[in-house]
Automatic annotation (TrEMBL):
This is Fatty acid-binding protein. Residues 18-118 form the SCP2 domain. GO terms for cellular component: cytosol. InterPro entries: SCP2_sterol-bd_dom, SCP2_sterol-bd_dom_sf. Pfam families: SCP2.
Length: 126
């Protein structure tokens, strides 16, 4: 089942992240060990619509639609900025400082997401 939503072009990255997590059992376990949290993402597209996805790196090591079960951290940003973040064309810290990325919950957990996104960057073609 694809996680992509055509109204949110960067959402294709969630499929890529899911593939990266499921490429090998060792990678999945490593990501769970590194992340140890549920990361929720709420993206806003150019039409002003919002949609949510989550990356469960606490138990399952999988990506899904919706906020997930008790997210430790929720990141809210535009679809465009998320695309740039996943492809490595934007820095999460700069997006946060400029107000383009809002973080709710455990901000330190948000820093654990970087290596997981970096793995997906090597496979993402957004």
């Amino acid at each position: 089942m694809s996680l992509k939503n055509d109204k949110f072009p960067a959402s294709a990255a969630f499929d890529v992240i899911n593939e990266a997590l499921n490429s090998s059992e060792a990678d999945r376990k490593d990501a769970i060990k590194q992340g140890n949290a549920v990361f929720a993402f709420t993206l806003k597209n150019s039409a002003g619509e919002t949609e949510s996805w989550h990356i469960d790196l606490k138990i399952k090591g999988a990506v899904g639609k919706g906020l997930g079960e008790k997210p430790n951290v929720t990141l809210t940003l535009s679809d465009d900025d998320f695309g740039k973040l996943v492809t490595g064309n934007a820095n999460a810290q700069r997006l946060f400082m400029s107000g383009k990325l809002k973080i709710k919950g455990d901000i330190m957990k948000a820093t654990k997401l970087d290596p997981i996104l970096k793995k997906a960057q090597t496979k993402a073609k957004l």
